[in-house]
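The record is passed on directly below:
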Amino acid sequence: MTLVQPWRCSLLKKFDDFSNTYCVTLINYSKIRSMLEKQFIGLDLFSGAGGMSLGAELAGISVKYAIEKNTYTAQTYQNNHSKTKVINSDVREIKSIPDNLRKGSTVLFGGAPCQGFSTSNRRTNNRSNSDNWLYKEFVRILRLWKPDWLVFENVTGIIKMESGVFFEEIVSDFKYLGYTCSHGILNAADFGVPQKRNRLFLIGSKHGETIDITPTTNKMVFTVRDALSDLPCLENGANTDILPYSQKADNGYAKAMRNTLTHCTGHLVTKNSEQVIKRYNYIRQGGNWESIPAELMQSYTDPTRCHTGIYHRLREDKPSVVIGNYRKNMLIHPWSNRGLSVREAARLQSFPDDYIFTGSIGFQQQQVANAVPPLLAKKVFELITKRDTCCESGNK
């Protein structure tokens, strides 16, 4: 079976469709549409599977190039963004920027790999970890291209790393290149994503503009049930990729995710051992490993030191906890004794159902987990594309 991608006919049509069905209020829609007719050019560094790029496209930015090191992740990106040239390479090997990226208003965006900045990764949360210096590649490309705007995304832990000195150094590097910087922490659940996920966003302007990056006061909250209720019923270890929906979508979020599709992909679930399934039986919605009898946790050296996110069963009446590495964390489906499928995790990240992930189940799980929720990214990029005065590349 071949699955079509019904809303990818054109960027303008995509915006028309989402203004009516994506359950996110678009203020001054006619103004945003006029922005689409004006060219905003984007370059996505550390692109991953394309969550930030999808958000950028929904905000009216034409993403011309994306750079992604992992082969399967780059393939996923290319399959879903046919008009973007994906460079499957380490960003450190990029020595020049194509001339066709210098037209229109330009935006460099991306987030350096964030594992080293995470507060849960204390062993790598320091300057000696070489991965923590990959942001310097973002700075290097910024120096090469000199775009009108930059959007730097990362985990919130980067702000507190080494008492804030490390983040101050990042901001200082951007300011040295002439960018006026604004930053803030946004929760995806505040922008139509059925997941509580805080991310740091730093926006830089080459033309001295400051951006107000504050949480919304007009919250539109979707729950785990909104996201998952119409998806197929699956068993532990399910491996049939393409399946029909189990029922009609009964809420705006699910309707927007599936659009006109009758089937979708990604119904792949890690096969957990019998011992793990026994543990699941003891955990109610909202609970975690603490509900598991001690005799079933003997494989852990010290189960009392487990992270609170381990063996968490999602609550159907609230947004999800952070998806993160949901396979490793044994994140549990709200109604079934199993882990999440790739599609269920993608729904909780706000990827539409026609977004197809590539590679083995492990690669697909990681691609979804690492992504920036597209609806959250869309909000951030709209802060740029909705500006009353757009910067022209000729004014650099």
Q: What stands out?
A: The longest helix spans residues 165-176.
